[in-house]
Design goal:
By secondary structure, the protein is α+β, with helices and mostly antiparallel strands. The chain is about 45% helix and about 15% strand. It starts with a helix and ends in a 17-residue tail after the last strand.
Length: about 325
């Protein structure tokens, strides 16, 4: 208590002295006009010290009190209002809760609903198919050998019945398609095909454009293989009917040497050898005259070869139709 009274007296005395000094000095002090405060010793403080706030004003020395005593902070900073809204004050949601909130309640359009139904139907069909295949495979996998053989026999019988039914239906279709006119045309085509086959087989006569070839062999040096080469060359050039003297040449014709002559299919012929060939003359004649061909080979044997074209060649030598011993037609 005493210290406080002493301090109060000192402050009072200081203020009085400052008042008396100010009045005494008048305008002579450097800071008199400004009215700057003075400390207890009567010394005018520095300008910056004078501008310090009241709470950090210097205390007199020797009083034992701290030179700075911050005022107690009684006022609190007002809370800052939250501008995020009421939604952020709610508790945060987990990932699963956000997912459920996004998918439920569902918000589907008509197109999405139709696509979903189609996908469901497709998946259901695939599941049924896989299940049925698994059942059949498991049944066959667990079957005995005798059962498997029986199943294979039944499949073969069913296949044969289906083939027979198919053939019967095709026959009915053919019968329905063939009217009276078509049947007549089919008979004509059959007769024409028979004639063509008869020409190739030598059973009917033939006529048409072609060439004639005469081989004069005065030296007797022409052999059977030379005439056979001539026949092969003519066939390769497109000959359709060939006759050598009075013998019809067909697919199974053979030539052999016979004394001073040549035998064709066992029939002996003598020089001069005359060929009558039906075909395209523009192809047949050059085939005989190629370098190293038939004509040059015969001429090397001192034979004379004469080739001429004609618009009408008649091949009238015939062969008797022979029934094959083993071969039979495969068509009904």
């Amino acid at each position: 208590m005493r210290d406080e009274s002493d301090n109060g007296d000192n402050r009072h005395n200081g203020d009085a002295s400052r008042d008396s000094d100010g009045g005494a000095n008048g305008d002579n002090g450097p800071d008199a006009g400004n009215g700057a405060p003075r400390d207890a010793s009567g010394v005018t403080p520095h300008r910056l010290r004078a501008e310090l706030p009241q709470e950090i004003r210097a205390e007199p020395a020797g009083t034992g009190q701290p030179r700075y005593a911050p005022p107690p902070r009684t006022a609190q900073r007002p809370p800052v209002p939250d501008k995020r809204g009421d939604d952020d004050t709610a508790p945060s949601l987990t990932g699963r809760q956000r997912l459920l909130k996004g998918i439920w309640p569902p918000r589907l359009t008509r197109a999405q609903l139709i696509v979903a139904l189609l996908l469901f139907g497709l998946g259901f069909g695939l599941a049924v198919q896989v299940a049925s295949n698994s059942d059949s495979d498991s049944a066959l996998r667990g079957a005995r050998q005798e059962d498997l053989v029986r199943i294979l026999d039944e499949l073969d019988d069913r296949t044969q019945r289906l083939e027979d039914e198919k053939q019967g239906l095709e026959d009915q279709r053919t019968e329905l398609e063939n009217s009276s006119d078509q049947a007549e045309e089919a008979r004509k085509q059959t007769a024409e095909k028979e004639k063509q086959l008869g020409i190739l087989a030598g059973t009917v006569a033939a006529q048409g454009p072609g060439i004639t070839m005469t081989v004069q062999d005065t030296k007797g040096r022409v052999e059977a293989d030379m005439l056979l080469d001539a026949i092969q060359e003519l066939r390769a050039a497109g000959a359709e009917a060939i006759q050598v003297d009075d013998v019809r040449v067909v697919a199974d014709t053979y030539l052999t040497n016979s004394g001073k002559g040549i035998a064709v299919d066992g029939n002996k012929i003598n020089a001069p050898y005359r060929f009558k060939v039906i075909g395209k003359p523009q192809d047949l004649e050059p085939a005989l005259n190629i370098p190293g061909g038939v004509v040059q080979t015969l001429e090397k044997e001192q034979a004379t070869v004469t080739v001429g074209r004609s618009t009408k060649i008649v091949v009238d030598a015939l062969r008797a139709a022979e029934r094959p011993d083993y071969a039979r037609s495969s068509s009904p």
